[in-house]
Fold this sequence. Notes:
The chain is α/β, with parallel strands linked by helices. 36% of the residues lie in helices and 21% in strands. Helix 5 (147-159) runs parallel beside helix 6 (172-179) and helix 10 (274-287) packs parallel to helix 11 (300-312). The N and C termini lie close together (10 Å). The mean pLDDT is 95.
Amino acid sequence: MRIKSLESCVVALPFNMGGPPSRFAGKPWTHMEILLVRVETEDGIVGWGEAFGHAAISSTRAALDTIVAPLVVGRDAEHIEALSRDILHSVHLLGRNGPFVYAYSGVEIALWDIRGKRLGQPVHALLGGSSRTELDAYASLLPYGDPELVKKNTAAACAKGYRHIKLHEVTRENVLAAKRAPGADKAQIMLDVNCAWSVPEAHKMAQSLAGDDLFWLEEPVWPPEDCHGLAEIRRHGIAISAGENVAGVFGFHSLIEAGAIDIAQPSVTKIGGIGEVLRVIDLCRSSGVQVMPHCPYFGPGFIASVHIIAALIEKPLVEVLWLEMEANPFDPWVRTTNGRVRVPQGAGLGCNPDPAIVARYRSGEVVVTTQRQL
């Protein structure tokens, strides 16, 4: 069945992060924005996707509405792999990693939702099946820059049942504050510095952190494509994770070839969708590299990641941003209970957004791309 229409809309969900709002893209970060992609086929099946995201939403949505959607509408919804090759090749001159790939990622996720609904199976069954109904999650704390807030939120996450806590901090002082938090003696701490350091700076920091028993150190080097610099930091003995910012499976090939990572982190809303994440997983299996998908989202991108992790990741662990939202159209599937997330068992992604919540928190107008004569 061919694709009849594609719609984009943004929902902006107020949230509390456990401290003063951090600044994101030059302004206080007070709302979690989700760029939703709705794809409908000519026989009326609707699939939902999510395109990255956060501060990139304006550029991603422009790429989706003006370039990607017109290329997609009218195409066969079932031939996902062929469509991915065609669309990503069509936009490759516009960037192999950025708004156009992010935009198509949202479309591709929606097509897997449609495939599952058409076959009456959840996405995790299409990926090989899984008996898992719940997965362990890790609390991904937002940046505080304040040891007391780090300690307070680490303790709160531990009290909520999390046994893995990821910090977004850049000092050892804040790592030690987390480790001193009540309950942290039963948790493992990860540190994501978001490419904060040059290679010499990263050497110094990794040396100082070497005895702190970090579960992993994420993206310690700027720029993220400095694979050989990253490989140097790995020699300090801390497991290195990276990959959310690379372009497709070949970006991971470069990281692996350089000996730069212990843990690969493909992001389904950034890399081109579910199919490209599957190729990364296959590559990592053949190379002895662990995979932990990057998924700090609250819509179909998060739910797609849950399906992938349930079906294909040997030691499953799901990233959940540590914040409290006022509402979410995909409740309860985007929330945890006792540090675990549920795996949807319905067809496709297994859940559709609540239209009342979408309408209440929608930011701006819905854009619809259609081809009237199929």
